[in-house]
Amino acid sequence: MSEVPVLSVKNLNTSFLVDGEWKNVVRDVSFDVYPGETVAIVGESGSGKSVTSLSIMRLLAANTSRIEGRIMLSGRNLLSISEKEMRGVRGNDASMIFQEPMTSLNPIFTIGRQISEVLTRHKGLSKAQARAETVRLLEKVRIPNAGARFDDYPHQFSGGMRQRVMIAMALASKPKLLIADEPTTALDVTIQGQILDLIKLLQEEEGMSVLFVTHDMGVVAEIADRTIVMYRGEAVESGPTEEIFHRGKHPYTRALLSAVPRLGSMQNRRWPTRFPVVDVKTGEVAEPSEIAGTVAKGRTPVLAVKNLVTRFPVRSGLFARQTGAVHAVENISFDLFQGETLSLVGESGCGKSTTGRSIMRLIEPTGGDVALDGYDVLRLDQTGLRNMRKTIQMIFQDPFSSLNPRMTVGAAISEPFVKHKLGNTKEAREKTADLLLKVGLSPDMAGRYPHEFSGGQRQRIAIARALSLDPKVIVADESVSALDVSIKAQVCNLLLDLQQSLNLAFLFISHDMAVVERVSHRVAVMYLGEIVEIGPRAAVFDNPQHPYTKKLMAAVPVPDPSRRGIRRGISNDELKSPVRSIGYQPPKRQYREVSDGHLVQVA
Amino acid sequence: MTTIDQAPPVLAAKREHSRAWRKMRKNKSALVGAVIILFFTALAVTAPILPIIDPLATSWSAIRKAPSAMYWLGTDDLGRDILSRMIWGAQASLMAGVFSVAISVCIGVPFGLVAGYFGGWVDMVISRVTEALLAMPFLIMAIALAAFLGPSLMNAMIAIGLSAMPIFVRLTRGQVLAVKTEDYVEGARAVGLNHLEIMLRYILPNVMAPIIVQATLTIATAIIAEASLSFLGLGQQPPAASWGSMLNVAKNFLNQAPWMAMWPGAAIFLVVIGFNLLGDGLRDALDPREA
User: Fold this and answer.
1) Do the domain assignments include residue A417?
2) Residue A475: beta bridge partners?
3) Helix (H, G, I), strand (E, B) or coil at A178
4) What is the pLDDT of residues A347-364, one digit of tens each?
5) Which residue ranges make up each domain of chain B?
6) ipTM
7) pLDDT digits over B159-181, tens only?
8) Inter-chain CB proximity B192 and A390 less than 8 Å
């Protein structure tokens, strides 16, 4: 690499004005991106990775931020040119794509117009030329039937397709550098695979450089030539991706890598296994331990679901007549034993969350039977339902919205206990202190408010609150999905420990295959509201039978740089919709038993 | 383990108040607002014992006199002392502002809560009625209601309060719709709380901020509305004074006697600013997220 770098960042320092003081969020970051190269900046939330990319494009508010250092883009120092010149750089020399495809397109203009605008503005093309070029670009990002979709509006595209449109727009001016800020984070795993492949392919075709910002080590391994690890505003380590993964020097790099759940890491293990714990200071790894023998097989299952169906009416027209239904959950049956973790996996819209909520009757199911520890859940009245809630509790995905911001943590944890009159005030206080200790927090935190805690701590608080009624079953709905890798590992470990000490049964709802493999005893794969495959974890992961299960596994980015060459083959498959017209009769499904307890839908 | 965080709920509630109070005291603009309102309230309360000229005493020799040593703020078209009328009028105006808004909030917010929380036909009925009420101009409705109830300050306040109520219904409903989708509300259901507990403990505290701001703004509207009603003989009954009625008379003499309009106008302006500052401060102090 003796060439001149496309982008050269030297001693980048970015500060924000917070309450009258300058707070330094990026410190002394330097790196180069060479022609045709992909460089990944990886780090957890608050590491300054996004701020770095925004600094390069000078997209931070001028009056509350300060960027120092030198950013050379094809021979020009971006920090010394005027804002007007900078506008000529953005979208021309360097383009950027963002995380959220749902909000980064303007909903009131057709996508064709939005792309051709870039062309007429930066390239001075005529309208007709711009249109032809736009169609070519849409074809390039593999949007089927591109010519006909020129005049479609953003809402007519799915999330993955919109991200393709964003990429087409970014490519419009043939930039030398593409900055991709978490471009696949909001997408489903199979769609993410498509987009990653597309970026790789386009990079080869166009010969551009890519600066890829992400938190996902799997994505890094798959796409990056070189990697920069950021931690608390500093680039702690950088080098070729292989080096970083296999011979990472900085303790943080090693901690990050050991916390990354890897699909296939559980091949010779029988039981759910804790994540290895790494000391961030020394980099020493504590050997992970298995959580064995918690499952009470053979006894009556604590939760038995039979033929559960949940449909939502779709209404349209002047009088809001029902014109169809979303078949969110269609004829689902499974058992969950005391001390067992059953995972429901699938992509967005597959009905996994609706299943969890239907079982708790937070959503009214359309039909079926749910037997929970002696309760006939679907036939309970209001009082019975309230009593039933002692047995089953829920932990939500977003720790930032699952706690009432106006209630102290102590009040939140003791509230269910007080509400169900399980003891007096003194006992409630003791219980709260005990629970806080159990989830790894200190009892004197009870007087604080949720906003004073980090995401991981809040999730611990949410777990403590769920435990305050001594439930037997916990529905964990994407409970670790929103957390940073290292925090995710810690919270998973906490859940496993609690399962061991309290003999809890978890219904673990997740889209993250690698985490699921780590924590579950059994796995059910959901697709379009139905379970297509269910069985013991080892059976499903080592011997997947249903085509969808196989597809799902293949799409998961594996944090192993040696697999970088692997291509899945560009496909345009989209997730199907479970909306059916009125009078639709769901087909009768047949299941084939592959091995003991391993069932696959065959027709 | 005997830290203050293990304090019983009563103590905890007290601590919560003292925390809000501490924050309030640190907020300079809120203190300014409080001082302004306290000042006018004190004037209104002590009006009967202050050594001032009788606000109703007319004088043919002192009609529309500019401010002087005798009449500090001048006199009006009937030769009455504007200073005393201002002080006595503070009673009517402050009451009109505070009471009518209290009525709006006390009726409007619960309806908005119920409509937003339950949705369905309950929401349908409440929202449609609210929209129908909003379609009528605020002042026209207040006049119609006041005329129906009969002329008195009390009835004027009720009329103004009812007319301003739909704004609060709609505002609260909109806020509830946003908060209702938060996970903690579903979490509260999952824990087994009933609807009332969820509404009062989980939703209401989280929708209060914009309601407080709207309330302080509505106080200003209400003070002006009372003026209009007085002008039509539906509010404060003459010869008793209110700032609004003074303004209404003064507008006929803007060229000859600008002070007649200036003082009540300035007073209304100050009180409104005072309530706004106080309201903003209150909103921040009650929010645990604000440092």
Assistant:
1) no
2) A394, A507
3) strand
4) 887 889 899 999 999 989
5) 84-286
6) 0.76
7) 999 999 999 999 999 999 999 98
8) yes
Question: Mean pLDDT lowest for which of A272-276, A413-417, A457-461, B34-38?
Answer: A272-276
Q: Is the pLDDT of residue A570 over 70?
A: no
CB-based contact A433 B187, cutoff 8 Å: no
Residues 14-53 of B with CB under 8 A from A: 15-16
Residue A360 is assigned to a structural domain of this protein: no
Which residues of chain A lie closer than 8 angstroms to B202, CB-CB?
Answer: 404, 407
d(CA A568, CA A192): 11
- Please give the pLDDT value at position A266: 79
Q: What is the pLDDT of residues B269-283, one digit of tens each?
A: 898 889 888 888 888
Residue A330, in any domain of the structure: no
State which residue of chain A sits closest to B183, comparing Cα positions. Answer: A402
Residue A161 structural domain = 102-174
- B-chain CB neighbours of A381 within 8 Å are none
Fold topology of B84-286: MetI-like fold (1.10.3720)
A471, burial (CB in 10 Å: exposed 0-12, middle 13-18, buried 19+): buried
Using the CB atoms, write b or e for B144-162: b if 16+ within 10 Å: ebbeeeebebebbbbbbbb
- The number of folded domains in chain A is 1
Interface of A with B (CB under 8 A): 357, 360, 362, 385-387, 389-390, 393-394, 396-398, 401-408, 410-411, 415-416, 419-420, 425, 429, 433, 443-449, 451, 462, 465, 469
The answer to whether B290 contacts chain A (CB < 8 Å) is no
Please report whether residue A566 resides in a domain. Answer: no
Between CA A463 and CA A494 the distance in angstroms is 9
> For residue B7, is pLDDT > 50?
no
Phi-psi region of B74 (alpha: psi -120 to 50; beta: other; left: phi over 0): left
- On the question of a cis peptide bond just before residue B239, with omega within 30 degrees of 0, the verdict is yes
A contacts of B212 (beta carbons < 8 Å): none
C-alpha span between A21 and A9 (Å, rounded): 25
pLDDT score recorded for residue A545:
92
